[in-house]
Design a protein that fits this description.
The structure is a single chain. By secondary structure, this protein is of the alpha/beta class. Helices cover 45% and strands 12% of the residues. It has a five-stranded parallel beta sheet with strand order 2-3-1-4-5, with helices on both faces. Strand 2, helix 3 and strand 3 form a beta-alpha-beta unit. The two termini are 29 Å apart.
Length: 261
C-alpha cells in the first residue's frame, strides 16, 4: 500500500502560495461553522520520524481560532497511566462538541511502536485493533469527525533528513539515538504500518496517505483533505456549510508572504 505511493509528487512554490491563504481562510470559516453546529473534529497525524508532521501541524493551526482547538503531542504513557485502561489517556482528551483536537501521534502507537519494540503481546495487539475501531466508531456516531493522516517517506529519505538535522547545531536536538534505532527497523515498522492501515480503515475513520517527500505538497494535501471532510461532516449533520468567500484580490501575481515556503 505505502510502497505504491508516488513520492516524487511535489508542488511549486508559486502554486503553493496561491493556495495557502485561501485554504487557511476556508479552514477558519469551517472551524467557526463546526462550533456553531456543535460538530467536533479529531485530527490524527501518524507517520515516519522526520516525515514533517510537526511542520504540517504548525501550518495547519496558524490561522485557526486558538480557543477552538487543542494540540496533543503523544509520548509513551506515564507511570500512573500504565495502571489504567490503555485508551484512557486518549478518551480524556476528546474535544467538546464544536471543538477540534489535533493529535501529533496517537493511539496508533499501541500497534506500531509498542508492537515492533515488543512491549505488548499478540493478544494485546489484537485487542488494541478492536479497541481502536470501536473508539473511532463511538466518536463518529456522536457528532465527531475522525480525520487521519499517515505521512510517508522512504527509508533513504528518512536517513537523509536525520543527517541533515544532525549537521545543524540548531536542529541536532531533534534526532536522538532512539530515532536511529527505529530507522534500523524501518522494514519491521513498514510491515506493522501496512497491517495497521488495513485493519483500521473504515467508513467513519478513513486514512489519508500523504506523500511526504515535498513539504509543500504535504501541507496542501492535508489542508484540502481536512477542508473536504469538514464540509462533508457539516452537511451530513444538517449544518450550514459556509460559502468560500475568500477575496481573490488578496493574492497578487507574486503570491503571498515571500518568506513562507
Amino acid at each position: 500500500m505505502l510502497e505504491a505511493l508516488d513520492l516524487s509528487k511535489s508542488l511549486s512554490k508559486a502554486r503553493y502560495k496561491q493556495q495557502l491563504r485561501r485554504m487557511q481562510h476556508r479552514l477558519h470559516r469551517l472551524q467557526r461553522a463546526c462550533w456553531e453546529g456543535k460538530v467536533a473534529t479529531v485530527v490524527v497525524f501518524e507517520g515516519w520520524d522526520a516525515a514533517g508532521k510537526g511542520t504540517a501541524i504548525s501550518k495547519l493551526t496558524q490561522r485557526l481560532e486558538p480557543r477552538g482547538f487543542s494540540l496533543y503531542a503523544i509520548r509513551e504513557p506515564r507511570t500512573f497511566e500504565l495502571h489504567l485502561p490503555w485508551m484512557w489517556r486518549f478518551w480524556v482528551n476528546v474535544p467538546n462538541w464544536g471543538e477540534m483536537a489535533i493529535f501529533d501521534r496517537s493511539w496508533y502507537g499501541r500497534v506500531l511502536v509498542e508492537r515492533v519494540e515488543g512491549l505488548i503481546s499478540k493478544r494485546e495487539r489484537r485487542e488494541a485493533y478492536n479497541d481502536i475501531v470501536s473508539f473511532e466508531r463511538a466518536l463518529a456516531d456522536d457528532r465527531y469527525l475522525v480525520v487521519k493522516f499517515f505521512l510517508h517517506i522512504s527509508k533513504e529519505q528518512q536517513k537523509e533528513r536525520f543527517e541533515s538535522l544532525e549537521s545543524d547545531s540548531t536542529t541536532s536536538w531533534q534526532v536522538d539515538p532512539e530515532d536511529w534505532e527505529h530507522h534500523k527497523k524501518y522494514d519491521e515498522y513498514l510491515v506493522a504500518t501496512e497491517e495497521m492501515l488495513e485493519r483500521t480503515e473504515s467508513e467513519w475513520g478513513p486514512w489519508t496517505l500523504v506523500e511526504a517527500a515535498d513539504r509543500r505538497w504535504v501541507r496542501v494535501k492535508v489542508f484540502d483533505t481536512l477542508i473536504r471532510r469538514m464540509e462533508e461532516g457539516l452537511a451530513r449533520h444538517g449544518c450550514a456549510v459556509p460559502e468560500d468567500d475568500f477575496p481573490d484580490a488578496l493574492i497578487d501575481e507574486n503570491g503571498i508572504d515571500e518568506g513562507d515556503d
